[in-house]
Amino acid sequence: VGFITWSAAGHPENFDLVVERRPKAIMLSFGDPAPFAAKARRAGSAVICQVQSVEMAREAVAKGADVIVAQGTEAGGHGAACASLPLVPAVVDAVGDKVPVLAAGGIADGRGLAAAWALGADGALLGTRFYAADEALVHPAAKQKVVTGDGADTARGAAVDVIRGYRWPAPFTIRTQLNDFVRRWNGREADLAKELATESARYAAAAEAGDFDHAAVIVGEAAGLVHDVVSAGEIVRRIAEEARQVVARLASR
Question: Are 61 and 69 in contact (CB under 8 A)?
Answer without folding.
Answer: no
